[in-house]
Amino acid sequence: MNSNKFLEWIGVITAISYSLIVALNVGLEFLGFALLFLSAIMIGFWSLRLKHNGILFLQIFYALAGLIGMYRWFG
Q1: Domain-wise residue ranges, the chain
Q2: Residue 36: which of 56, 73, 9, 64 has the closest Cα?
Q3: Spatial separation of the C-alpha atoms in residues 28 and 44, rounded to whole Å
Q4: Residue ranges of the chain with per-residue pLDDT less than 70
Q5: Among 1, 28, 37, 66, which is 20 to 30 Å from 20 by CA?
């Protein structure tokens, strides 16, 4: 598997995991937001490499949301 596919699919899998963890409300919100952050980083690098600037811009905000979520749940 090439590195672009790896970034794309790890980003997708972590985003799906984040969504399920938060939607199921099982008390693992911090982990969910950490997965959101990881997903945004992976998909962000993927979009940067392939010059998908709109997706990159979106991932910057998802990464910020992940950081804010981790801060608010941890603190």
Answers
A1: 3-74
A2: 64
A3: 24
A4: 75
A5: 1
Report how far residue 29's alpha carbon sits from residue 4's, in angstroms, rounded to the nearest whole number: 28
Report whether 63 contacts 44 (CB < 8 A).
yes
Tokens of 41: 């980083």
Residue 67: CB partners within 8 Å, gap ≥ 6? Answer: 33, 37
Q: What is the DSSP string of 3-67?
A: HHHHHHHHHHHHHHHHHHHHHHT-S-HHHHHHHHHHHHHHHHHHHHHTT-HHHHHHHHHHHHHHH
- Does the reported pTM lie above 0.85? yes
Asked whether the CA dihedral 28, 29, 34, 38 is positive or negative, the reply is: positive
User: CB 6: neighbour CB atoms within 10 A?
Assistant: 12
Task: Kindly state the tokens that stand for 34.
Answer: 């950490």
